Amino acid sequence: MDNQEPFADQRLVREIRRSSDAIMSGGEWPASIPAVGALLESGLHLGEGVTFLIGENGSGKSTIIEAAAAAYGLGPEGGTIHSAHTTTPTESPLADWISLVRRPGARTWGFFLRAETMHGYYTFQKELAGGNDFHSMSHGESFLAIAESYLTSPGFYCLDEPEAALSFSSTLAMMRVLADLAANGSQVLCATHSPVLASLPGATIYELGEHGIRRSEWRDLDIVSHWKTYLDAPDRYLRHLLD
Description:
With about 240 residues, the chain is of the alpha/beta class. β6, α6 (about 170-185) and β7 (about 185-190) form a beta-alpha-beta unit. The protein is built from 8 helices and 9 strands. Helix content is about 35%, strand content about 20%.
């Protein structure tokens, strides 16, 4: 048996599924979102390394990321398992409806990078004795500094649109961070609108929409075809928008 251990499933979180004791009424938000409904009905298997959730605004990406982070024990407004700061609670009840299928005995370290609430997390850090002053940095610099400070040790990382503050070159730098995490045995669950970030080799990609959730390849993603078409000929879009 010992010589089989290296081949054992080393994923920290293997699946997100509906809790057996989940209590909800039919059609209740966010279960009314097709992707969230699909998760509650069939579960969501996470791959090794990085798993991307891709979809339009309102498709349920951030709702699922937020719930997975809270179910893991991470601060719902961003941070580690030790984060307890809060501003205005806006979390959906999804975290109470799901459970994570975890590897027995797996470490609990992780971090939730939630783009829309990072300002509050920076204040929380500054108020800690010896905490970093991320407010003194530009928006993009602070995101990369967070990555360099907290996205290093093996663990489970939930990232909600980390590209929101990043330039093209900084997005490439974030890809390097994600690749390093995958290499050290971490798992990353990331919601993104970036076709650049989603091109990370070896990543598992799910596309969310009215269809629910489906596995996809990078080249088949709507965001990839749309960006390619737009950059090749912007006038195809602009003549309809600006006329």
